[in-house]
């Protein structure tokens, strides 16, 4: 049976079904009772105050409390309203949650899920629009999930809740209202398994979260122009389905990575390094990264739109890659991660 659900409703349905199945699951966070984001709507009324717990505005306190609860037999699902605020409680995540299994020699596990939002597009400016999934992917001991559509969001959340290790579950704010037909009952989707959305021979596109939808639109345009795209949604940045990525590049010989995270030291750069080290001989053209510039997110609508990756940027870059003649000079693409906000290269230390 299928039902048309939004991403927010699919996540809410998965949470409700899993809480009914497993009484050890609790929900914690700011405003989870009224559900500002809509994902925990109705759960307080159904499961009561002992399992849906509104917390004060102290991320360090309630993340720490959730870690303690997970250590003693519960399965907390914590809502950190914006990933921008993760810096407030980073010690709890970086030094406590991520390290527990290692520091106990595998004797203890930490079944904790931290749900948090990422993404620009709502005109929320620099402090409420960041996509910090690359930062958390770099922390050993954490698993990181980035659902891209309603039909996979619920299944990935179920798998995250049932996982014995801490999982950061990144929900793009601009995807909450997206709707799709979702198979019911919702089944877990194993973490670390990529999804091939289109099969093609000319170009591999690896995209995450909201960027998957942009890549799909671009791929349709490119198909009309005679260029076939092999589109991969890894769904997780850790564990990353490296096999799916490498097999795709070995088939097409061209790679584009589309990500809303940081251009420098980010997830796109990490995948580029993976392919350059493991599938270099298969490449027919330089790897192209479609990311925002290395600059804070602007508030003005026109500037924010220009800051974000777009369908047009993907289409143009795809043609550049297809037409690329090897050995004919540098290929910088449309975003130089070493340039400042104004697009000019920053001077080296000591230069004016």
Please explain how this structure is put together.
The protein is 34% helix and 18% strand. It is of the alpha/beta class and 352 residues long. The chain has 2 domains: 2-183, Thiamin diphosphate (ThDP)-binding fold, Pyr/PP domains (Rossmann fold), CATH 3.40.50.970; 195-322, Rossmann fold, CATH 3.40.50.920. The strands form 3 sheets. The protein has a 7-stranded mixed β-sheet with strand order 3-2-4-5-7-6-12, with helices on both faces. The protein has a 5-stranded mixed β-sheet with strand order 9-11-10-13-14, with helices on both faces. It has a two-stranded antiparallel ribbon with strand order 1-8. Helix 7 (150-162) links the parallel strand 6 (143-145) and strand 7 (167-172). Helix 3 packs parallel to helix 4 (90-97) and helix 8 (210-224) crosses helix 12 (311-322). The chain is globular and about 60 Å long.
Keywords:
about 350 residues, alpha/beta, Rossmann fold, 2 domains, seven-stranded mixed β-sheet, five-stranded mixed β-sheet, 12 helices, about 35% helix, globular, disordered C terminus
* Separation of the first and last Cα atoms: 65 Å
Number of distinct helices:
12
The structure class reads alpha/beta
* CATH homologous superfamily heading of the largest domain: Thiamin diphosphate (ThDP)-binding fold, Pyr/PP domains
User: How do the SSEs run, as a string of H and E?
Assistant: EHEHEHEHHEHEHEEEEHEEHEHEHH
* Tally of individual domains: 2
Q: What is the second-level CATH architecture of the largest domain?
A: 3-Layer(aba) Sandwich
